[in-house]
From TrEMBL:
Domain of life: Bacteria
Transmembrane segments: 20-41, 53-71, 83-107, 113-132, 144-163
Lineage: Bacteria, Pseudomonadati, Pseudomonadota, Alphaproteobacteria, Sphingomonadales
GO MF annotation terms: acyltransferase activity
Coiled coil: none
Protein name: Apolipoprotein N-acyltransferase
Length: 166
């Protein structure tokens, strides 16, 4: 006998991303832009800008994992792909934490950590592309993901290149 409760019969209808998703997504680049302005201002807030840029890139990269987790729980899969989706979903948080370790341990920071995060963010739409073969993604998803990843990853890499190391 199968369970016919609503929790097991949910059907999701994907619609194209609304304009608000694009507006909010692009607005999400503003903190990194502001951090870059602090860095390039040459003021005493340069290190604050670098730390903020690192933190924001790490938060957003971890947020991507949360989005992927959400896709995983709304996708009915009982094969190895289901396990892989959840493994992928936790990877950004673990990688972001790994880039934090140099700061904790007093190693060279922030340049290398910013560089790694920048590369991770730039490459993250490749994970979405992999997911698109296993999950339904709304129309516009990949366009927005590429734009935001190039924006955030690019700014983060730019800051990695000018960051003095401690």
């Amino acid at each position: 006998m199968t369970d016919a409760s609503p929790k097991n019969t949910a059907i999701f209808t994907l619609r194209p991303l609304p304009k608000a998703a694009f507006v909010a997504g692009y607005a999400g680049l503003l903190p990194q832009i502001f951090a870059a302005l602090l860095v390039f201002s040459g003021s005493e807030y340069r290190w604050t800008g670098l730390a903020a840029a690192y933190g924001y890139a790490a938060f957003i990269f971890s947020f991507l994992g949360g989005m992927w987790w959400g896709l995983g729980v709304t996708t009915r899969r009982d094969d190895a792909s289901a396990t892989a989706i959840f493994a992928l979903a936790v990877a950004p948080s673990l990688l972001a934490f790994a880039t934090y370790l140099p700061w904790i341990w007093g190693w060279e920071w922030p340049g290398p950590s910013l560089a790694w995060l920048g590369f991770f963010v730039l490459g993250s739409p490749l994970a979405d592309r992999w997911l698109s073969a296993r999950c339904q993604l709304p129309d516009g998803w990949m366009k927005l993901r590429w734009h935001l990843s190039i924006g955030l990853g690019g700014i983060t890499l730019l800051l990695a290149g000018v960051a003095p190391t401690a």
